[in-house]
Amino acid sequence: MQADFTVELGKDDETLELPWAAEGDGPRYYDLKRHPELLLKVEEARAVRELGEFLEVMNAATGNLETAKCDVWSSTEIGPEEEIFGAALKFGSYVDLLFSDGKTRSSFPEHEQWAKRLTELLKKAPEIPAATELVIRRCYCHGEDGLREGFYITFYLFGYGEDEPQARQRWTIGLKLVENAIRQLSAS
């Protein structure tokens, strides 16, 4: 599995503000860490069972992470760097991951060290047509104590194949590899 991480902290780079909500009855933030029963309201988790299982693990009460946003999709747009997989299609996802502890959430070195360690673990995983990228970004959390600045990690994962079932199967394997690597990091 290919794995890498980048940092996007420029003034024009994407940020995350919590809580968030789309207009009208659109998607919104659910605090799955403190209210796991709300997972049923996350449309992507209902549509793709494997993503729902991943979100459940990431938001477990005993873990040190929680999630803020996610999405899944398939695409025939294969970039030049993805041509090495020789695939006609990719199945992809992203999940925004946050450290639950406020002190860790506000520490860039902690995020960078965690992303490096996770990337190193994933590079040791079996070679499959899948790729992951971790992107460290800035977040702003509104709470009872006001606005707190910190960081989060967008975790992208792509599985590649000749058709959607094959690409999705490879994505699912990659998702389990990432889940296991994160569990390993959490235990150490």
Task: Compile the SSE list and pairings.
Elements: E1 2-7, E2 15-18, H1 43-47, H2 49-58, E3 65-75, E4 89-99, H3 102-105, H4 108-123, E5 130-143, E6 146-161, H5 164-187
Parallel strand pairs: 1-5, 2-5
Antiparallel strand pairs: 3-4, 4-6, 5-6
Helix pairs in contact: 2-5, 4-5
Q: Residue-averaged pLDDT, rounded? A: 95
Please report which band the strand proportion falls in: under 5%, 5-15%, 15-25%, 25-35%, 35-45% or over 45%: 25-35%
* Helix-strand topology string: EEHHEEHHEEH
**Structure summary, number of beta strands:** 6
If you compute it from the alpha carbons, what radius of gyration comes out, rounded to the nearest whole angstrom? 16 Å
Give the domain tally: 1
Euclidean distance between termini CA atoms: 22 Å
Helix content: 25-40%
Notes on the structure:
The protein is an alpha/beta fold and 188 residues long. It has one domain (2-187). Helices cover 31% and strands 33% of the residues. The chain is built from five helices and six strands. The protein has helices at residues 43-47, 49-58, 102-105, 108-123, 164-187; strands at 2-7, 15-18, 65-75, 89-99, 130-143, 146-161. Strands 1, 2, 3, 4, 5 and 6 form a six-stranded mixed β-sheet that branches. A hairpin with a 2-residue loop joins strand 5 (130-143) and strand 6. The two termini are 22 Å apart. The relative contact order is 0.21. The model has no long low-confidence stretch (mean pLDDT 95).
